[in-house]
Every structure is written in structure tokens, then in C-alpha cells.
Amino acid sequence: MELYTIADMAKLLKIPESTARYYRDRHPEYFHYTGKGYKKRYTPETLEALRFICEQANNSRRTAEEQQLRLVETLTTTLREISDQKKDIQDLRDEIKELREYIKTPVLKRIFKRGE
Questions:
Q1: What is the 3-state secondary structure (H, E, C) of 6-73?
Q2: Which of 17, 20, 64, 89 shows a CA-CA span of 20 to 30 A to 30?
Q3: According to the model, what pLDDT value does residue 58 have?
Q4: pTM as predicted
């Protein structure tokens, strides 16, 4: 049976050795080994467990990134809608101002102005 050092497993999985050690420390129940200290060697099952842990961490990271992307898209859409609403509000304010001016104009002046 082939055994691996933590550095061997990290190299095989193309991850930093520090990451492999982090996962080992975080999930000791999956890291079966023989030997002690610098002679500690891990089983092939441990390599597969580490591979699985790395995949799950990557999936989790990807999911978080996808959620952030959806959030940014939602914020962008919301900001566009707010901008459009601000323009609509300004247009309505302008219309109200015109109508107020119209109402302030005496009725006879309005009647004769139309006939011109």
C-alpha cells in the first residue's frame, strides 16, 4: 500500500501544503496515518478524503461567488429602476408646476388665450 506525506498529497491535488494542513487540522477524523512526527504517512483513503474536502470547499466558494454575482445584478437592476423613478418623479413635478400655473391664470384670460 502506497503512503503519502502531507506534502505529497498537496502536490498530487495541486493545492498549497498549508491548505492541506489546514484541512487536516480541521477534519482530523478523515486523516488516517501511520508513524509519528516527520515519519507520519497517510493512507490512499486519506488522499481521497482530502480530495473530497477540497472539492466541497471549491463548490462552496463557487456558490458564494454566484450568490454575490446575483446580488450585484439585483442591486444594479434596482439602481436602474430608482434612476428611472427619479426621472418620472421629476417629470410629474414639472407637470404639477405647469398645472398650478394654469390654475392661477384667470379663467377669462385662459378662454381668450385659446381663441388667439
A1: HHHHHHHHCCCHHHHHHHHHHCHHHCCEECCHHHCEECHHHHHHHHHHHHHHHHHHHHHHHHHHHHHH
A2: 64
A3: 87
A4: 0.58
